[in-house]
Amino acid sequence: MSERRRRGRGTRGLTAALVLALAGAGAGIGLVVTPRASAVTPPVSFTADSLPTWQTNGIVWAMAQVNGTVFAGGTFSELRPPAGAAGTPRTAVNFAALNAATGAPTSCRLSFTASSGTATVRALVVSKDKKTLYAGGRFGAVNGVKVSNVAAIDIAGCTPKAAFHPSFSATVRGLAVSDTTLYAAGDFSTVQGQTRRKFAAVNAATGALRAFTANADESGRAVELTPDGRNVLLGGDFFTVNNSSSHALAVADAVSGAVRKTYSSFHRLSVVMDIATDATGFYTGNQGNGGGVFDGRAAFDLDGFGERWRDRCLGATQNVLPYGGALYIASHAHNCATEGEFPDDGKRRYLMAQPTAHKGAVPAPVDGFVPGPRKLGWFPAVNGGVGEGVGPRVMAAASKDGVAYLWVGGEFTTVNTKPQQGLTRYASTGDVGNPTTPVASAGSVGPGEVQVRWRTSFDADDSRLTYRIYRNGGSTPVHTMTADSLEFERRQASWTDTAVTAGTTYTYRVTATDGAGNTSAKSATASVTVPATTQAYPDRVRADGAQLYWRYDDTVSPYVADSSKAGNTSGLQVGGPALRQAPGAVNGTSTAIGFNGSGQQVYSDHRQTVGSAYSLETWFRTGSIRGGKLIGFGSHTTWNSSQYDKQLYLTDTGRVVFGVYPGSVQVIASPWQEAYNDNQWHHVVATQGPSGMALYVDGKLKATSGVTGHGEFTGYWHVGGDNLAGWPARPSSDAFAGQIDETAVYPKALTAAQVWNHYGLASIS
Prior knowledge:
By secondary structure, the protein is mainly beta. It is built from 3 helices and 59 strands. The strands form 16 sheets. Strands 44, 47, 48, 50, 55, 56, 57 and 59 form an 8-stranded antiparallel sheet that branches. It has an 8-stranded antiparallel sheet with strand order 45-46-49-58-51-52-53-54, with no helix packed on it. Strands 8-9-12-13 form a 4-stranded antiparallel sheet, with no helix packed on it.
């Protein structure tokens, strides 16, 4: 969740026209349709590589564009060249005009000032004929010409139009324009001395007040016309419009202001910060505070204005921009667990994108709402910056000389970890960023094959990467393949090399290449010797269907390789556990991983669900009298999970406990007289399925229960740590101290015979 904040809305100029132009394959309105960036995975249109751009010394709240010029409004007093670039700072009083292609200021200079208090520009929009720029905010003059919170600027001459001077009684936060009418949203209660609460309309040429009346009880923050011009979309804090009950969003007739559609599905502490349209629908960006608050985005149809989907990520969405089938998002997203994506583990993602519509079958509603489309592979890095620390606040798409540019404004002070304040931009061409270097591993459990596996790389603007595997130092890859990854989900990829000979040692290195040809460095060398005979224990674990199999033979951090046949659920080490601990639990060359009982653990690398039947298997060795978690399923990654279930843990006295939470805690445990904290390797298996729960230690059945249910949520497997609060005989330490080896998770309940077989094979493998 995020704090409730009072923010302005910066309109996107001709965004709606741009999207209509895109939808119409180059129809003659809006921006020129430009080629999609070759480096990115569709429908992303822009790279994540920021371009040199002049910057402000304050916050940018609003943007608009026309004919290759981008206008920025906000609360600032100066423009500065990019860090390290030539140029002299210049005065810029709450307004700047910049060349979309170069990022440098144009000759147009306007000063928005107030006789008292702080002047600010909160909204900008360009007229349909592209001749007039309208500005809204809190100001009393433009270049000395008196105005009252709204102004019209002649674009060609960069001068305020003195004949246009409507009087708004308070801050204007949003603007939209038709051929004849300018619509405004804000804090005002009167316009031209007549009652117009929070929303109003004036003649676009003269500023004369229109009959349009849509009086709201609380602030208006966003206003947008539907593409047909017949209706106006209203967004803000309000609970009533023209005495009709409607919270945060409403649809009104564009001429009269009569309410056409009301909404009651937003949380009472959620407000609409922004509204944007394309040819198929409209989108809201929301923020709020409190339990159950809606802080993300929603999509609505233009036919009937019904809701299409709702993305309930938490993180105060400030601005949304539909472009080329993608919805670009300015927010500080920190928790997308409701969408099955990333939990709240302390990281904020300020710029993201997702498709505007689901491709294929629409998912079933969750908690009454159709989930939003899954995030796309676009994650430019900015920080929270000054002011309220929310980072980006507004975006605009502009085109010049056949290249499309995405401009972003806000309160950030760094872009891609380098100093850059208030403004940045990205292009549809020119991707130069390399993917991260893969982390590779190799393993073999029998003659005739080597499993090469690696943690997939991250590329900020390309989610589908090409991987090349090089063997024995060769310059020509022995295998090439593609795999998908996102910033928050980097599943392991793997390939099986069958052109190998028993008794021979092989080395492998892996590279990642994006769509533009940018290639990572080669991974560190992964080495493996192919055994002459099949290793019985790991071969049986794989044959019995493990879908996660961590052997802990890794030589580099923070990667834990998955040796299962599918090979896509690697682990990430937290806190630097000790690698290559010998001897391991299984005879042969396999090693174990060591935990110190203080913050060290391993968690699985992608969010998943667990079916009704499953088995947990691992080996452990400890002399600790503080217990700790061996393996469990939790809702978070590096932070303590708020939901935790399907747990195997050791008590202070050395008993093994297996527990689930199908609405209440249900546990079974090994006998009280048996202690397994004796510095010896022990094998433990827990199963649950249609017959209930079973717990095995060292191959023998120790306890059963008829409980068939468990907690159902998406999460991550944890080994060596995570929350145990509220569970019976909770150990002194949730974190385990000792060694763990051969951890496996199965999508079925292993039989007693299979468990006994595994235990016996460990000594002969």
